[in-house]
Amino acid sequence: MKDPEPQEALAPSRNSRKIHIPAGLWTKCPSCSELLYTKELIENHKVCKRCGYHFPMTAWERVGLLLDPGSFVEDPKGLLSCDPLQFHAATSYQERLAYYRKTTGLEEAVICGVGRIEGKRVAFASMDFGFLGGSMGSVVGEKITRLIERADREELPLVIVAASGGARMYEGILSLMQMAKTAGALARYSRKRLPYISVLTNPTMAGVLASFASLGDVLLAEPQAMIGFAGTRVIREAAGQELPKGFQTAEFLKDHGLVDRIVPRQELRETLAKLLDYLVPGCRSRT
User: Fold this and answer.
1) Cis peptide bond upstream of 56, omega within 30
2) Distance between CA atoms of 59 and 109, rounded to whole angstroms?
3) Which chemical reaction does it catalyze (predicted)?
4) Known binder of ligand: residue 283?
5) DSSP state letter for 73
6) Which residues are within 8 A (CB) of 106 and not within 5 positions of it... i.e. 6 or more apart?
7) d(CA 165, CA 210)
């Protein structure tokens, strides 16, 4: 019989060092559980290389993804939400706004301005779900409305990237009024017969979908994006029946006519450029 190893041999060496792995070096995919090298994930536009899951992007990351480098000029800026209802719970509305301004670096849940897509000048807005769930309050509605009105004046095509849980409850009816305001601005804009391309990302829900997000001349969506008005549980209980498989996914809505095309993130910039070429051939040469 072989003698057992001495206990000393099993003990760790005094010279051995614990390997320290920096936080954030790896990211686990919530869809397929693949462990992804964060740097490679970012280089792949935050899309899982194994299953194609689209991780959330910030509003400024969308600007970098879709617009020509250095072409975007933000406008309007400096619009900040107040607290018309004096909303107070565990934390006040103003405290929540201050927290999200600090953590996201944004003034509000949307950034708007004018930039270029492969040389084509466009009015562009991108929502950020990281700011209070991308909810639409008075300032979000006002910024989007001003962008639409600028696109109308300057005869620019319009691209809006939506990512939102819906209307902002902290502002009550004032938040819901933004649905009518943005829709009205789009109705006036449509008289110029200029294209409005709406990009639906995960999630695009409730008051945002029921207003400007669903009013595009062309509706694009990212794969597997959750798109709908009310939550699945609410609809199931109201309808009193089980819902179809994949209900409220981009794929389901494309099959049923709401979404025109599902575009993987890596192809979105090229797709927008081609659509602009088809719909507004002369926009490349405009200053």
Assistant:
1) no
2) 8
3) N(6)-carboxybiotinyl-L-lysyl-[protein] + acetyl-CoA = N(6)-biotinyl-L-lysyl-[protein] + malonyl-CoA
4) no
5) E
6) 59, 100, 128, 131
7) 11
Task: Map residue 126 onto helix, strand or coil.
Answer: strand
What is each CA distance from 259 to 137, 239, 249, in whole angstroms?
Answer: 25, 23, 10
Task: Say how far apart CA 211 and CA 148 lie, in whole Å.
Answer: 13
Q: Which of 15-29, 53-67, 199-213, 269-283 has the lowest mean pLDDT?
A: 15-29
pLDDT in tens, 224-262: 999 988 777 777 777 777 777 778 899 999 998 999 999
Place 130 in a pLDDT band, splitting at 50, 70 and 90.
Answer: very high
Cα–Cα distance, 56 to 33 (Å, whole number): 16
Q: Are 59 and 128 in contact (CB under 8 A)?
A: yes
The answer to whether 141 touches 178, Cβ cutoff 8 Å, is yes
Length of the chain in terms of residues written: 287
Q: Which amino acid is at 76?
A: P
51 is in an annotated binding site: yes
d(CA 135, CA 165): 6
Tell me the C-alpha distance between 55 and 43, whole Å: 12
pLDDT at 109 over 60: yes
